[in-house]
Write a sequence for this structure.
């Protein structure tokens, strides 16, 4: 087993064509991921047509290199522009962007790159050694479990969304309401299309996310022509990754824990990077000695989020390879590429397609290393661009967002969603409704509704069946506890405020 | 003082969300339903959501109102007007520019809509004396065209061509 | 008078030049809309596009949309000049009959060709269930389901081809409870996880599990055995008249000139005969097919009529 891995790895790093291809596509992935408006999925979709003519192994080099690159590239956009490229980078904006505003843009991105690498490394090691063993866990999670996890994730969003629990709930719920547009997940009934079939597709996440994060930035710049507060700076010259090895390793527990959370959440089909990074972030915050610094530029928050979302890649590959069931929507694209090349994934894949499967592990590992060096290498150049006056860069960002919103599914209505969602997002943010919470609520709505309806369908309409499922009940209890904790904190905070102003 | 503003905005927000919740619920009666056996139909989750949103909105309005009452007694008129009409004007201008770009995206295409939009944004976002017209014109004209062809040749993705179809088609 | 003459002259020139243009068709890249990226339809479309390039001389660019209905809808407003096409599958007709489209899936378009067919959905149950309930053949399953009405849960995807298949089985007397679980991947997950009892879907999804012995495949739905799984009986052998087919269509906007359509049809014929095409599709158990313009139109119209006849509109 190990020998197959090492021989694949050796071949990959000694054959010039593989080296060139992987370097190229990691770089491309980083570039695409860093562009606002282009999500990780979109990057893979753009690369997909190029792979149809290739040999399977070459195709995997291209796609997986792109995947690793894009996942890490997303942090650049999240930190420097405050625009998450995908749901997985939302938690990165919480502390990454404040760091950039404090003059530590390069350090934030540097730390992000390093910790993405480590997260990926840990999850790929897990992938290699225990994939077939733990893949079956993915099957134990049925609709009731996913429903419960969804509710638990919502409770986490609420606790992240600031001091006022009511506004937190409203934000998450608003996101869920927006997700109800389009067709319902099970019966395919068109909802909220107001009789116009053109609106049957509902609101697309890319358009909404770009809108809510990018447009308010532009509006803020317009409101105050002298405003310099959102400028991104790197005040000191960046050495290495911006953090000393000692300082980084001192946070080893955060790193390890976030990686495991990321890998495990990625393992669950249907739950992906956004939940992984959020959960890791929340855990880091709750276990920290100084939770109040989270959200103001706390490195631990950044580390937690970025380690988890890259660890998610390996996690999502596990059920994909071992069961034939993709662990995330991005893994689904990789899976379809494999299917198109006639490769069947599943329990026998490890036996029938050993060489290819271990090549995949090797590709992921090697791409991870390439990512580390390339992204750090181009960082200085990137910084020059990113620290350019915001009033210039944001206009280019608007153009890219138009492109990204439209291209996701060649739908003109999505461009309107981008604009209108953006303007609304500005007002909502001003009123204290966190847009990150809205987007996360939107992402989770599918999991919640989809699984609730299916769970009932399978249980023949009998909700009491839920009581027979301990994992689901455990998550529901966690959800209630988490929510109660947010409520408690909120009441304490408002009492404190009242005492101050009295 | 900021607290007073917050309390007011909470009440406004609460009211808006409450109206939204009511409309959201009402619209569920227009769904053309499909019968699914043994499970809830497509109206279930929207209705549950709107009820909770309504409850939260009511709570928010109440919260805001209590704070408003408590604070307005000791409130002092804020002399510094936060933003002038010019600022609001710019914000509306940005929104209109974006909206216009979205509306003309289909008919005019990517390469025609982006330059005016970018130019307009560049101008709105910068004070007259700091504007760099050369840079603005160059980027607005070059960037969209470059992006269009990069995406076509590099990624086999065709962005909307709109009116420019006969012109661009020659290069494809 | 002079104005009239010049008007006639202009029209004549335009008519001649457009005829000339049609003869030169295509002079630039063609856009073909299709469903989501990464799906089977998308794959088939891209294989076709790549090979058609050889015979057409121009690129066919695939434009992904949100789904089958969007793919067809996006060409309804396009200029009928042959530069916008749609690659779709038969679920568009199901959506139409169920009232989910605002256009007529047959009359609203010019059907160019039916370039591929995928015959067969396989019926499978878990080995544990088979042993426990003594189900070794499809007939056993039928009897078991009738003895325990509603007990067995079959995975369904409302509004898609899978839905038609489940309905056909229920019509044939299998007393299943159909559970709406979502797309093929979700059906597989729930099947393996024990949430549903009967799996209907592509053989490639369960291939490995059958080999490992976890899953028993009872039959393939169709009038004859699938050439990909010659050892597995078909439903016709047990006397059930059920068929399961997924086929692809290439359509153009209504009003596209006849000679453009004929040229496209000709290209389709050449592609269908190209071994690169047939092999690529065969790897995914899809058969390359060719029907000419008239034949394709009839195929598609007959299919839609069949759907209406089995009462899809009300289900």
């Amino acid at each position: 087993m190990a020998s197959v891995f090492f021989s694949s790895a050796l071949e990959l790093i000694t054959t010039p064509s593989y080296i060139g291809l992987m370097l190229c596509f990691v770089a491309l992935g980083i570039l695409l991921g860093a562009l606002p408006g282009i999500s990780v999925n979109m990057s893979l979709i753009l690369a997909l047509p190029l792979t149809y003519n290739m040999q399977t192994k070459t195709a995997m080099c291209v796609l997986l290199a792109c995947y690793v690159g894009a996942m890490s590239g997303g942090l650049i956009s999240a930190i420097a522009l405050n625009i998450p490229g995908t749901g997985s980078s939302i938690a990165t904006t919480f502390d990454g962007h404040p760091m950039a505003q404090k003059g530590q843009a390069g350090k934030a991105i540097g730390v992000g790159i390093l910790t993405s690498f480590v997260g990926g490394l840990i999850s790929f090691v897990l992938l290699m050694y225990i994939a077939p063993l733990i893949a079956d866990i993915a099957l134990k999670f049925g609709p009731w479990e996913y429903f419960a996890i969804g509710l638990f994730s919502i409770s986490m969003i609420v606790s992240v969304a600031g001091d006022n629990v009511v506004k937190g709930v409203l934000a998450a719920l608003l996101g869920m309401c927006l997700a109800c547009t389009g067709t319902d997940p099970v019966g395919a009934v068109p909802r909220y299309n107001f009789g116009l079939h053109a609106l049957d597709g509902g609101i697309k996440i890319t358009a909404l996310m770009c809108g809510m994060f990018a447009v308010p930035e532009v509006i803020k710049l317009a409101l105050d022509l002298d405003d310099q507060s959102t400028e991104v700076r790197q005040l000191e010259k960046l050495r290495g990754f911006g953090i000393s090895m000692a300082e980084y390793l001192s946070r080893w527990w955060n790193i390890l824990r976030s990686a495991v959370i990321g890998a495990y959440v990625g393992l669950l089909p249907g739950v992906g990077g956004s939940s992984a990074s959020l959960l890791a972030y929340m855990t880091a915050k709750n276990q920290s000695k100084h939770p109040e610094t989270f959200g103001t530029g706390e490195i631990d928050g950044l580390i937690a989020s970025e380690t988890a979302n890259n660890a998610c890649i390996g996690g999502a590959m596990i059920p994909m390879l071992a069961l034939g069931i993709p662990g995330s929507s991005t893994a689904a694209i990789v899976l379809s590429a494999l299917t198109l090349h006639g490769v069947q994934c599943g329990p026998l894949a490890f036996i029938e397609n050993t060489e290819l499967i271990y090549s995949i592990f090797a590709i992921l590992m090697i791409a991870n290393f390439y990512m580390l060096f390339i992204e750090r290498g181009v960082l200085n150049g990137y910084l020059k661009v990113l620290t350019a006056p915001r009033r210039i860069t944001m206009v280019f960002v608007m153009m890219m967002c138009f492109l990204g919103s439209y291209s996701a599914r060649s739908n003109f209505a999505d461009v309107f969603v981008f604009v209108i969602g953006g303007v609304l997002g500005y007002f909502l943010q001003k009123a204290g409704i966190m847009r990150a919470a809205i987007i996360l609520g939107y992402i989770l709505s599918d999991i919640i509704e989809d699984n609730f309806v299916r769970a009932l369908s399978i249980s023949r309409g009998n909700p009491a069946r839920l009581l027979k499922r301990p994992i689901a009940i455990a998550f529901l209890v966690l959800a209630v506890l988490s929510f109660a904790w947010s409520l408690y904190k909120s009441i304490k905070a408002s009492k404190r405020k009242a005492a101050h102003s009295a | 003082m900021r607290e007073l503003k917050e309390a007011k905005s909470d009440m406004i927000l609460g009211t808006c969300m409450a109206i939204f919740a009511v409309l959201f619920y009402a619209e569920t009666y227009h769904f053309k339903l499909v019968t699914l056996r043994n499970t809830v139909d497509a109206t279930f989750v929207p209705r549950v959501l709107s009820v909770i949103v309504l409850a939260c909105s009511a709570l928010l309005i109440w919260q805001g109102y209590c704070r408003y009452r408590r604070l307005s007694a000791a409130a002092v008129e804020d002399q510094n007007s936060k933003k002038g009409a010019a600022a609001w004007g710019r914000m509306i201008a940005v929104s209109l520019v974006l909206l216009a770009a979205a509306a003309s995206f289909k008919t005019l295409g990517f390469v025609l809509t982006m330059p005016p939009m970018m130019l307009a944004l560049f101008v709105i976002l910068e004070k007259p004396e700091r504007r760099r017209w050369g840079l603005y014109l160059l980027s607005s004209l070059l960037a969209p065209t470059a992006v269009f062809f990069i995406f076509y040749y590099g990624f086999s993705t065709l962005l909307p061509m709109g009116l420019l179809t006969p012109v661009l088609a020659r290069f494809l | 008078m002079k104005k009239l003459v010049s008007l006639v002259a202009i029209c004549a020139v335009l008519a001649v030049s457009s005829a000339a243009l049609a003869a030169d068709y295509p002079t630039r890249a063609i856009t073909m809309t299709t469903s989501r990226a990464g799906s089977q339809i998308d794959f088939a479309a891209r294989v076709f596009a790549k090979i058609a390039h050889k015979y057409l001389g121009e690129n066919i660019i695939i434009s992904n949309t949100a789904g089958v209905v969007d793919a067809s809808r996006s060409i309804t407003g396009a200029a009928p000049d042959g530069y916008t096409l749609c690659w779709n599958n038969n679920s568009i007709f199901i959506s139409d009959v169920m009232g989910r489209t605002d256009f007529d899936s047959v009359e609203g378009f010019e059907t160019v060709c039916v370039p591929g067919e995928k015959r067969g959905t396989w019926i499978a149950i878990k080995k544990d269930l088979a042993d426990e309930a003594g189900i070794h053949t499809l007939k056993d399953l039928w009897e078991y389901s009738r003895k325990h009405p509603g007990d067995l849960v079959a995975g369904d995807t409302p509004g898609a081809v899978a839905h038609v298949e489940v309905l056909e089985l229920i019509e044939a007397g299998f007393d299943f409870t159909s559970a709406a679980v979502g797309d093929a991947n979700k059906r597989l997950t729930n099947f393996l996880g024990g949430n549903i009892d009967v799996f209907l879907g592509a053989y490639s999804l369960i291939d490995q599990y059958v080999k490992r012995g976890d899953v028993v495949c009872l039959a393939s739905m169709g009038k004859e055995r699938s050439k990909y799984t010659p050892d597995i009986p078909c439903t016709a052998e047990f006397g059930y008249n059920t068929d399961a087919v997924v086929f692809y269509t290439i359509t153009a906007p209504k009003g596209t000139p006849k000679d453009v359509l004929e040229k496209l049809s000709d290209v389709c014929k050449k592609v269908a005969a190209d071994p690169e095409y047939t092999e690529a599709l065969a790897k995914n158990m899809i058969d390359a097919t060719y029907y000419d313009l008239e034949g394709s139109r009839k195929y598609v119209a007959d299919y839609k009529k069949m759907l209406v006849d089995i009462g899809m509109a009300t289900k």
Remarks:
- The mean pLDDT of chain A is 86.
